[in-house]
Amino acid sequence: MSSTHASVEVRAARHDDYEEIAAFTRNTWPDRDGGDYIPDVYHDWIDGEDRRTAVAVVEGDVAGLAQTVLLSEWEAWNQGLRVNPEFRGSGVSVAVTEDLFEWAREQGATVARNMVFSWNVAGLGQSRATGYDPVTEFRWAHPDPDPDSDPDPNADASSASGTEITANPDAAWRFWTDSEARDRLRGLALDPEESWALSQLTHEDLRDAADDGGLFVVQNDGTRGFAHRVREYERPAPDADDGDPETEQWVEYGVGAWTDAESAQVLFDAIARDAADRGADHTRVLIPETPRHVSDVALSRVEVSDEPDFVLGADLTA
Q1: Which pTM does this prediction carry?
Q2: The pLDDT of residue 4 is above 60
Q3: Which of 14, 36, 69, 312 has the fewest C-beta atoms lying within 10 Å of its C-beta?
């Protein structure tokens, strides 16, 4: 598949595009801490039948790229939109986005979503201009792994309140379908397969988490909240000194949802214990961006990200 938008040709990415792409993605956000992931993962990132990485070419030069990944039979996730600074204003972002929309439609997708950091005003405007509408926003909670946090999973998590942690996926699903968290997040949680992607949380996702020992349901005279583990991975440790580990272990939880501050505290205690059991150095828990949820995390003395992330979506049936 190839297409042309004005003077921009769009085609599938190739491995031999790497040097050109790496040259303009190594310093994508010069004013922000941390670099761009694309140069580090490019060769593995573009492979797979469930995805298309589109490259824009202008007069023989690589001018930009973006990728779409099928998360389910009807959901596509678009990511990695980058434009070579030399070709900004040339219609590159529109051309590659239209190409991804077309490919996703052909695979049966009815929606394509993406994520934009809330501080990335240019990226937000670019997404709106290319056909995305606002969907939701979220933050990350980062409970410290703690092996001494509620060490007995079969005991009351709070003997004073009678609250306990179970692994009942049906209770978690019923809670989710009626929860403020689901409403605010429009049913989305971290995708179990694609990192940094959000998809519709399903009953089956919670059953799978329970089967893997990664579902934590807060119960006390009814269900008061839940969280589920979705992923474990290693990534390079930043600025490691001699003798320090070269990698760090991360554990991610697809969503945290609860009814009140006490339930939030119990839930994060359970996550802290689980993360320690998995050998985690760091954690991430997706939470709704609401004053109550964010302040409940703060009240629990759990670190929370400074800024929210925004999710946008395009109706591919239009």
Answers
A1: 0.91
A2: no
A3: 14
